[in-house]
Amino acid sequence: MARMRVFYATQFVLSLPAGHRFPMGKYQLLRDRLVAEVPGVRLGQALPASDGELALVHTPAYISGISDGSVDAKVMREIGFPWSEAMAERARRSVGATISACRSAFADGVAANIAGGTHHAYADKGGGFCVFNDAAVASRLMQAEARRSQRATLRIAIIDLDVHQGNGTARIFRDDESVFTLSMHGQKNFPFRKEASDLDVNLPDGCRDDDYLHALEGALDELDRRFEPRLVIYLAGADPHEGDRLGRLKLTWDGLEARDRRVFDWAWQRRIPVAMAMAGGYGTRIEDTVQAQINTFKVAAQYAARWQNQPR
Ligand SMILES: [Zn+2]
């Protein structure tokens, strides 16, 4: 049976004020259902990213501010979580999970982080439930390791299909030609001041399956023309689903699954390993968000099997 390594930090649960809109419970629900329903999943506990790893992207002042709680109150308000040691630890481990998923993707073809996709985090500040930018730190670390071992530049595409723009990621890699940032997002949705990704696809409110999949096809074609990645980091946000409170799009279950299948297929055809992070999901019913994400993992597991069954 094919294996798919999945990294988690679900033991760090933030205690949020009553009525807080972040669905902290989704990670444990997702983990439980993964074990029960997706054969081949091998869970691994995420290690915390070190200061040195975080500093590949983040400023020393921001890293220490998050670590000891001295970070500006305004920055914490923009992140949207109250500061606690558990919050800081969880943020580090979420980065560590994406790092591990990248390493495992090189070995197994496909691997994942149960959390992560914290794309609103900039070098010197967080925002929108994002503390550190996991995909950005993992990208820079994988590139540093490739330079050391192969003396080569590792080209990475970050395919961000969370419904919100990956503004932090876009800004971090604005002047970096070795990382291609693709973001497909609701034009009128948060963040209201957007950054320039290498490729931005703005979607109208109420966008449905057909239009969405057509736009995705065009985006992948353009990515193909402009860039040749050797690793894909896929942010598979569940928030384009029609049952999402914050998404403003109207994708069905089938539409989301077709989206995931298209991304994994695109990468598989080119034999590009995929590390996946979950990114956002704010279903009116938390079960719907978990369902969307389980569906994504089931597609991912099918592609892990293809990788591992190919003739060598
Ligand atoms: Zn989102």
Secondary structure layout:
Elements: E1 4-8, H1 26-37, E2 41-45, H2 51-54, H3 60-68, H4 73-79, H5 85-108, E3 110-113, H6 134-150, E4 156-160, H7 167-172, E5 179-186, E6 199-203, H8 209-226, E7 231-235, H9 253-269, E8 274-277, H10 286-309
Parallel strand pairs: 1-2, 1-3, 3-8, 4-5, 4-7, 5-6, 7-8
Helix pairs in contact: 1-10, 5-6, 8-9, 9-10
The protein binds zinc ion (ZN).
Average of per-residue pLDDT values: 95
Largest sheet: 8 strands, parallel
> What's the end-to-end separation, in Å?
17 Å
Find the structural class using helix and strand composition.
alpha/beta
Tell me, what's the shape? globular
Level-1 CATH class name: Alpha Beta
Q: What Rg do the Cα atoms give?
A: 18 Å
- The domain tally reads 1
Protein name: Histone deacetylase
Domain Histone deacetylase: 26-285
GO molecular function, one term: hydrolase activity
InterPro entries: HDAC_classIV, HDACs, His_deacetylse_dom, His_deacetylse_dom_sf, Ureohydrolase_dom_sf
How is this structure best summarized?
The protein has 312 residues and is of the alpha/beta class. It is built from ten helices and eight strands.
What does this molecule look like?
The protein has helices spanning 26-37, 51-54, 60-68, 73-79, 85-108, 134-150, 167-172, 209-226, 253-269, 286-309, and strands spanning 4-8, 41-45, 110-113, 156-160, 179-186, 199-203, 231-235, 274-277. It has 312 residues and is α/β, with parallel strands linked by helices. The chain has a single domain, classed as Histone deacetylase domain (Arginase, Chain A), CATH 3.40.800.20. The protein has an eight-stranded parallel β-sheet, with helices on both faces. α7 (167-172) links the parallel β4 (156-160) and β5 (179-186). α1 packs across α10 and α5 (85-108) crosses α6 (134-150). The longest helix has 24 residues, at 85-108. It starts with a strand and ends with a helix. The site of zinc ion (ZN) has 7 residues, from loops. The site of zinc ion has 7 residues, from loops. Residues 26-285 form the Histone deacetylase domain. Belongs to the histone deacetylase family. GO terms for molecular function: histone deacetylase activity; hydrolase activity.
